[in-house]
Input
Amino acid sequence: MMNGRSIMMVMLVCSAGSLFAQTQYSAKVTVNSGNSFVVNRLNVKGDRLYRNVGSSFTSLSMIKSIEFRFSGISLKMCDSMFRMGDRNALEGLIEQNVGPLAQYSSLPTNLGDYLHWWLKTQYWNGNSAGVKKTIGYIRQTEDPLLMNVASMYFSMLLLDQGKVDEARTIFSSIGRPEEMSVPMTEYIRGKLALESGELREAMRHVARIVAFHSRNKEWLPPATVLEARIYQRLGHPQKAETVANELIIAYPNSRWSTLGETIKMEITGTRGG
Amino acid sequence: MREGVVLVAAVALLPVFSLGQLSGRGVTQSQLSRLNPQAESTSVLLETSKELLKNEQLEDALPFLEEVLVRLEGDEGKKARQTLAFTIYQLAYCQMQLGEYVAGARNFVRFCNEFPDDYQQELARVMAAQCLTMVQQWPAVEEQSEMVLQNLRLADSLNVQATQLLAESRYRQEKWAEAIKPLASLFRMAKKDTVRSGATVMLVTCYVRLDDFANLFRFLPHCNISARHDVGLNVALLEAGDSHYNNGAFQKALLLYRLVLTKADLTEHYEARLRKLRLAMKPFVAGTGQTLAEFKVFQQKQQQLFDRLKAQYEVITNFQDYDMDVMLRTAQCYSDLGRNWPAHAIYHRIFDENPGSELADQSRYAAFAVMLDEQEWALAMAEGYEYIEKMPDGEFKDDVTLNLMQVRMHQNQFELAYEMGKTAIEISPNHKYIDQITYLLGYLRFQSWDYPEALGYFTQVLGEWPESRYYESAEYWRSMTLLFLGEFAQSETAFTGYLSNPKYRPRAFEEDASYRLGIAQYGAEKFKESEETFVSFVGNYPESALLSEAYAMLGDLRAAEGDLEIALDYYEKARAKAQNISQINYPLFQAAKVLDMDRRYADLVVLMSAYLEQWGANGDFAHAINWKGKAYKAMDEYPRALTSYFEIINAYGNDAERGGVDLVLNEVVNDYKSDELEGYRSIIEDELEEHLLRASEKGERTLELRYQTVFVGITEGAERDALVDSIVQSKNVPASGPGTLVVIAREAVKRKQFELVHDAADRFMSKFPVSNEMLYVMIANMDALVEEGSYAEADELSEQILLKFGYSKSVGYARKRRGDAFRLRGDFTKALEAYKEVLSIREWRGPLTPEALYYSGICKLELNDVAEAFVYFQRIYVLYEDYTEWVAPAYGKSIQCMEALGGYDQEIINTYKEMLANEVVAFTPEGLEAAERLRELQPAEATR
Output
């Protein structure tokens, strides 16, 4: 049995050995009794987790939580890189650091937040195969909130693939999507309305993102694109052009400015803002 | 930025001097009073200066340093030069510390220029620049800091200071592009948040001023949280937004406003920082490794930072309605960019979340206005009505009511527009736009044919607001109203008055009024004046849209005088100048009348043939072919008339929506039934059969249905039933023309196929809104509604029928069915009212009267008013004995009433006898029953 002092273990950041040659992390394992220990390699065989040395192990069913700390990435870093637009680099970092551990997402870990960031970056980087795989890992967590988030991104993916009915079905199965993300919910609702030809309804949703989430780095740009598209469908090319200009000015050298230029090209036959 | 300038503690860099003969506690005033700088030796002057400097007695040190300077000037000795350098530097330092920045700067620069190899060279230039900063001599600051930065091996702290000075000097000189490089360097190098924040604010401003939004949006994500939350930065964004907005650059203004953080964001940030600073400012504790002096310096810096942040915090918290203000500006940008939906969402939030604020009123109005601009009428109206409800004293209520009125007009909802106009004046008796509202009310009443009230409103505008911009319109429409009221003489006067009113230059309605004047004169039977007016009109307005109509009027005027050739000539001109088909049709058919009157049938045939050839299905082919047929008939060439009819029927008859074909078919049916053309009956029938067969063979379903419909009208018995079976099917509804739909609706009622009736009626109403047969379909539909128990809908439909067709004969039936609907629903009082209406309209008297009387009696019976019921039944057999189907049951019901009332035994017997005396009644079921009853009452007499 562990004594009281062993509970106060100091977190160590260790090299993970040959199995995860490029991954540096440590994991604080807390068991149901409240005691905890740290491993620098998650050595799981069957239903057992083995310690760093020796043959001592803990049954997986006895584990209350596993908290990973990565030397190469943190949640704050994810937030910062995503906000600054370094989404490819972020996806790579998460893949490198968290990827090898994602298979253990069914265990009670803190990987969920990282999987969320991974899913986001994969979606926006257009890695649909990755999205599907990560959704699989998220499902293993059985975390209802996280699963709802995954369902929302899956709806987005289906919408992008033109599978509107399937997207609608998935999205309608989410209880209170606003609790996950208000702008994302508005965006999906707007997109579904647009696909149904309910242009004004679509515009109402988009307008709320544009008006009230104007500093949301993830949803404002696509909402702005959607606004331009709706104006095009409503037969207001001048307004669509105005919105396209915003994309060109506000998001230089990005996919959003490229989309702005495309929309402008469709309307006026000329690019640029 | 000025508070960001760090004044270097130069004294700390000075060489340490020995105290000499002076005490270490400074120089007292008494000692100073005994020293005369001009009289003392240079060594005493220097010692005294050092002591005074050491003790921060800077003002006292000045005369000693200045005297040393005088004595050493021109001395080229090495020691003298060193002392001179020291003296100039210290003098500059003292001057700077004493606020004599110009002198300080001059001496620091002199020091640098005269002792270029001195190790304090860069520090002195930095201090010179700092002095110049204090007096805002920015070009000189720039010059000095540039010189410092030429040293590429500058110490970090000096590098930061010089870069900061260079950046600020260029910024102050509005050298936006040149300021960017040092600002970007400063942003990278500076360790202090205050300096970084300052650099951030300036850098953002430079990008904004340079319109370099690409770099601005690249830079902003790299701002740290402190800089991003800096009040100065956010105010700079706000001001830059305003500047762009005022220059009409709404897109850029919008992007800047959107970057401004909310009050909650800013206050939360500042509160956290202030809290952290407060916690760090603890009392001195000995033994922590920090001296008391170090502690005091630290505390002082912390306090300064705290005070600065607190001041900024107060700026934010004291900014009333900060968030709303930013939101309002953002919304305004969206609105100016035509992006009304986001603008609308923001305005909505402002008044939802701040219902009592001053801006709520403005926002509510703006939410209404942007939806108007977006032409989202339903939403705009919802906002407008809510404004009136929620802001009865709102600043914009007059604008809202006027706009609502106009929106309703735009939507052709004239009654609702009128209601809004009335409300506008009711809630705002001193309405800002009272003249316009009154004028519009008049116009709306005119549109609703309520000419007397319209006249009142127009007259009010003319009487009360002679300076109104709607005065001219009111004068014109008043003249028009008089014309439509049939007050031709007054109308003529009014139009003449309008056309001679010198106030209007130019006259907005001159052309139209000049034409209407002729109409008014025509109405007033001033034919000569009328003709003169029209002649004048065609001369004055050769391009007018009314030119054709003026020629047509001239044609009518000449025709009335018997000048048929001239009339025909005018009608031809009218057609030549026509701008639409109705301007062609009117003079064409007027010319047809003239030719008919003149018996010029061959010309008539030519005229109509040419018209049909030119306009085909786009013209009034039914009317034209009927004229052509009429001409052939007049020439006794009926077969040619018949051929012409079938040519048209077969050409256009398979298009269900060409209702005119049914008119031509009706003409054929009329001919078939006509006694005069009896000799052609079999020919007509053969032709019809042949064309029906051909349409069937060609699969022309609509045409086939049309011919079948004709046969329904001219056949009887099993033959007719078979045709009806074929027509009355839901699959035929989409292919049916108006005539066929009437047959479907009527026959489906008999067959109790009510859904089919509704389908046929719906199609009819949507496709043939001006058909003559609409009334029959509506009545059939109403019958179906009554039969299926949809009484409320039946009542509504009955109202529509009355509204559309007035008191025409068939409408009486619809109103009687309305009574039936009330009766069947058990509302006998309303049923009685409905029957009373049927009985009171002269045009509806006839077969409906006994029926309405009978059911009135039934209602009275249901209401237990037997005596009244009896009177109704009696009236039927007394006054309407020819209507046996009502007389017989009326007798029966009368007897029932008398039995219920009691004491009428003899009257009952008499009534039976009277009933049986009417031979037709005697053989009705009621008559047979009456005979049986009479036998029971008076066996002997009854058998006689």
The CA atoms of residues 477 and 533 of chain B lie 19 Å apart.
